[in-house]
Amino acid sequence: MTPAREPLAVTGLGLVTPAGSGVAASWQGVLDARPTAAPDPELAGLPVGLSCRVAGPAGAPGVRQPWRLDRATHFALAAAREAVADAGLDPRGWDGARVAVVLGSAAGGVGSYERAVERYRAQGPGAVSALALPAFLPNMAAGQLALDLGITGPVLHTATACASGASALHTAALLLHAGACDLALAGGTDAMVTPVCVSGFARMKALSRNPDPARAARPFDAERDGFVIGEGAGFLVLERQADARARWVPPRALLAGAAASADAYHPVAPHPGARGLEAALRLAVREAGAELAEVDHVNAHGTGTPLNDAAEARLIDRVFGRRPPSVTSAKGALGHTMGAAGAIEAALTVLSVQHALVPPTAGFRVGDQDTRAIDLVRAGPRRQQLRLALSTSAGFGGHNAVLAFTPAGGGRG
């Protein structure tokens, strides 16, 4: 049996999403259930032409020679800096050896990789930049965060497809519990809105073919036909509660439990009974020292694909039965931000716990026989005090991760 551990304080949040750069803009966009899908000129001529992009050019302020860095790394830098500032931390004054970075990404700097391949094919090996590898290697965004913030403790990269950001938070929690660090900056980033990635997902029939931007992303809806690809980054600062108290910083919420599992079922399809996700969910609740009856809310993976939403809805209905938790999915508003999704959605879950407010699911109109049984928040935000809220994530390869958040007594209200 997994023993309960002391919950960790979430003292900082940082977000870059299609709804806006910064926590405030992203949170308001999700509360407003405002779809961000739009026609994408860079995808013109492809089978699917919609995406959820971060507005404006990618670029973290103050970065020297910004062209050296992939778009995903710029997102990570901006979100991580916001999280550090939100936590009341100044990197110039911390002991970098006691700070960890754990960053999740499904594809690393895939945009930089595609451009390098294009140059190689068009102009030969001499046209490939010496900066190509540092731009696209998956670990380099974490490495760039360490350089930017003077972090010399553990610097790790997690790659569990669309669960990567949640896996990063789970890994960071393990480092803190093991005493390997005193602060952990953990999250995810991805910028996979590229021609090759979109073509691959389209060939797999994973993307919505609905040409209407307002109706393409529709988690749990009876007419869902796939996700809209998005991009962005999310980061959380985690620390032990005693350390947060010593700094006189009230937590936004507490990370009370985290767990991972694998389906061992299919390379890309979820287990139809979501048995792997169920195992992780039960473990996370148990680690939080709680019972299933105490779960008031689930921020679902909710991709908008027929198979994922059906399996996840059946799981929620089966596990919670007559006392269903409220359910929402941010992907109706933000699209599927790939390896960043688990971290972005964890941050949104923290905000729901902190503000006692659950965002609606953008794009949803009516459920089907699998999804109508769950208590999906729709139409507008729901006021709800949350004792225990879960953020669920899943990814190709059968990866699952579940994070459990509780209110922080005397937190930031």
TrEMBL record:
Pfam families: ketoacyl-synt, Ketoacyl-synt_C. Keywords: Acyltransferase, Transferase. GO terms for biological process: fatty acid biosynthetic process. PROSITE patterns: KS3_1 (PS00606), KS3_2 (PS52004). SMART domains: PKS_KS. Residues 5-407 form the Ketosynthase family 3 (KS3) domain. The keyword Ribonucleoprotein does not apply. InterPro entries: Beta-ketoacyl_synthase (IPR000794), Ketoacyl_synth_AS (IPR018201), Ketoacyl_synth_C (IPR014031), Ketoacyl_synth_N (IPR014030), PKS_Beta-ketoAc_synthase_dom (IPR020841), Thiolase-like (IPR016039). GO terms for molecular function: 3-oxoacyl-[acyl-carrier-protein] synthase activity. The keyword Phosphoprotein does not apply. Signal peptide: none annotated. Belongs to the thiolase-like superfamily. Beta-ketoacyl-ACP synthases family. This is 3-oxoacyl-ACP synthase. It comes from Streptomyces tateyamensis.
